[in-house]
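EI: anyone free to look at a 110-residue chain?
SC: sure, send it
EI:
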Amino acid sequence: MSKDAHDEARKTPDVSAALELNDVVHQRTRLGVLVVLAEVREADFPYLKATLKLTDGNLGQHIEILARHGLVSVRKGYEGKRPRTWVEITRAGEAGLAAEIRALTALLSL
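SC: here you go
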């Protein structure tokens, strides 16, 4: 390898960490849901909606996607006579969030 080619190879950042980003977790709203749930473990729908400043439909769709991928579990019930939905992060969700943070940290250290 010539000196110029060697120097150019050293200048090219290794962005392979970007390949580790999970499209399900990486999306801004879903990442926000996972981060909140990692802190509080379980939250009801109104808390997530207010904290993340989302509409019912938007939050509902993202929770559905996270649940479909096993990253959160959803429990429906009643609090008094009012219907409630609680969302809890799963172990897979914690692992997915941790992997996302590692990949982002690796990208930032380039």
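EI: The beta strands are 42-44, 72-79, 82-89.
SC: 👍
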